[in-house]
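Ticket #4471: structure output looks truncated?

Reporter: J.K.
Steps to reproduce: submitted the chain below (140 residues) through the standard prediction queue, then opened the result file.
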Amino acid sequence: MDVTDATFERDVLERSREATVIVDLWAAWCAPCRTLSPILEKVVGQTPGAELVKIDVDSNPRSAATFQVQSIPAVYAIRDRKVLDSFVGALPESAVRQWIAGLNAAPSEVDSLIAAGDEASLRRAVELSSPPTRGPSSPS
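Returned output as attached by the reporter:
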């Protein structure tokens, strides 16, 4: 789906509340963009819960400025109106697959405990993320 400055709020930010939105910032004159685009279409099309949107940076400068784009292609993953991850440049299909898979990785036990938010869960999360403590050292 092509997104414009006028539809950015609806098609990217609001949609990200229901799906992971992969934003492909590109330009017609950009050869690496033309290489990456079909890879993104293929991989995202095979990924449940993810949707690809394309923003032509030349025609939509406000959207490009939102991401502070300095080089293209630039790809961002948005969920719940927040950037999850991004990359710049044309990647091979295997790297794009790996990047997409990382976006939907299961949360760690610590992440799940923090999400629970109760005192016992938070204490357990601190225990799991703290380095093991050693007993007092004996003099040599």
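Triage note (M.O.): checked the attachment and the full token line is present. The chain has a mean pLDDT of 88.
Status: closed, working as intended.
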